[in-house]
Design goal:
Blueprint lengths: L1 H36 L7 H6 L7 E3 L22 H7 L2 E8 L2 E7 L9 E2 L3 H15 L27 H5 L17 H10 L4 H6 L17 H14 L3 H13 L6 E3 L12 E3 L1 H12 L3 E2 L2 E2 L3 H7 L12 E2 L4 E2 L7 E6 L3 E6 L4 E7 L9 H14 L3
Antiparallel strand pairs: 1-5, 2-3, 2-13, 4-6, 5-6, 7-8, 9-10, 11-12, 12-13
Helix pairs in contact: 4-8, 4-9
Length: about 400
């Protein structure tokens, strides 16, 4: 009887330990889910966007211990008329302006600091595009016309089977995916819950089965296409995206702070929107692209990829915003003007002819309002023109 009671006590202890572990695990998942649900609330959005590592699983990258690549100081500029109201109306949190590679304006708003590492949202897509160009140049990927499942076999049988790398770079995969942030059950919000609950982004992508058009025929902004690009790069190189970003971008460019990615529960980077950098480092990346992929005498991204990825090539509608390989081009853009864009007011704007780069972060809850993107581009152009 004594042995039996001892064994029962041992079982109770084990169950209690297991129960505690499960409770802690679930509490963490529930905490992340609650963070997603309150991420964009008016009272929390600014602080959340500067501290995403508090609420989500992350993968840090290291800049190592080398010198920070300097941004030469140029004469400070006065922002053009209307800029002060624009900063307030669009909830700008950070604005960095480079002209001829020199820092001409830098300001931080709504209680943020220069040291904040801010969420990129879809600006991260343009960073991933740079890695695709590097992988292609190094021969890890043979051709943009290869089907994605050649490098990511788990996509066989999914809606992505038969789509080429070029199709997903152009966001013309033809895969059904709703980007309605206001619909709780939309694909983009379901994907957010996958991330928050520590589930698999790869499984989410491979589980999509519906298409609305043949690959390459129709352009539609489909954020999960970018995750598929990440799957292809990982399959081709055998390395994670954070490791590749650290090796090919972060360290060679001398970023000033260690970046990080948000990840799913399997350590896979949230490549379509989970990069976190200081605003000055977003500006450095933009300046590198403006310089045909060169930075401090090193070719970071192949020059031909810079040109190809920032040239309209997607089958977008006439007169609409144009799209390259994960970069945007305005329909009225002069030659050499293009931009990276993320929700809630994240931008890297590049005007090659004027040698201007503008990096902006924001917490603009009105970013969906019609005409907001046009207003932002108009202000970027006014800032660039003011330095002529």
């Amino acid at each position: 009887m004594r042995k039996f009671m001892k064994r029962v006590a041992q079982v109770i202890v084990v169950l209690a330990v297991v129960g505690t572990i499960i409770a802690v695990w679930n509490r963490e998942k529930i905490g992340r889910l609650l963070a997603v649900n309150s991420l964009f609330t008016e009272e929390k959005i600014v602080d959340n966007f500067s501290h995403m590592d508090r609420a989500f699983l992350i993968k840090p990258m290291t800049r190592k211990t080398g010198e920070v690549s300097p941004l030469a100081e140029g004469p400070s500029i006065a922002l053009p008329p209307g800029a002060e109201d624009w900063i307030k109306d669009r909830s700008v949190t950070a604005l960095v302006v480079l002209k001829d590679g020199q820092l001409r304006h830098e300001s931080y708003h709504r209680g943020t600091e220069p040291e904040d590492r801010r969420i990129s949202w879809s600006v991260a897509k343009s960073f991933l595009s740079a890695l695709m160009g590097i992988a292609l140049d190094q021969g890890a990927i043979a051709s943009l016309n290869d089907p994605v499942e050649e490098y990511a076999p788990s996509l066989k049988g999914s809606a992505y089977e038969g789509a080429t790398i070029r199709n997903v770079l152009n966001m013309s995969s033809g895969v059904v995916f709703s980007e309605d942030y206001l619909d709780f059950n939309s694909d983009i919000n379901r994907m957010g819950r996958v991330l928050a609950l520590g589930q698999s982004m790869d499984d989410f992508a491979s589980g999509l089965t519906a298409t609305f058009a043949p690959p390459g025929e129709t352009w539609q902004y489909v954020s999960i296409d970018t995750h598929v690009i990440g799957m292809v790069i990982r399959g081709a190189t055998g390395q994670s995206i954070p490791d590749l970003m650290e090796e090919h971008i972060v360290q060679p460019m001398g970023f000033e702070a260690d970046p990080y990615y948000l990840t799913d529960g399997y350590g896979v980077a949230f490549v379509l929107g989970g990069l976190n950098l200081r605003t000055r480092d977003y500006a450095r990346f933009g300046q590198m692209f403006l310089q045909d992929g060169r930075w401090n005498g090193k070719q970071i991204v192949p020059a031909d990829w810079v040109a190809a990825s920032t040239t309209p090539s997607a089958p977008t509608a006439s007169g609409a915003q144009q799209y390259g390989y994960q970069w945007w081009i305005a329909p009225d853009a002069p030659k050499g003007e293009y931009f990276a864009r993320g929700i809630y007011g994240q931008y890297i704007f590049i005007d090659t002819a004027r040698d201007v780069v503008i990096a902006m972060n924001g917490a603009d809850r009105g970013f969906r309002t019609e005409g907001v993107n046009d207003t932002n581009i108009k202000m970027f152009r006014a800032i660039a023109a003011s330095m002529d």
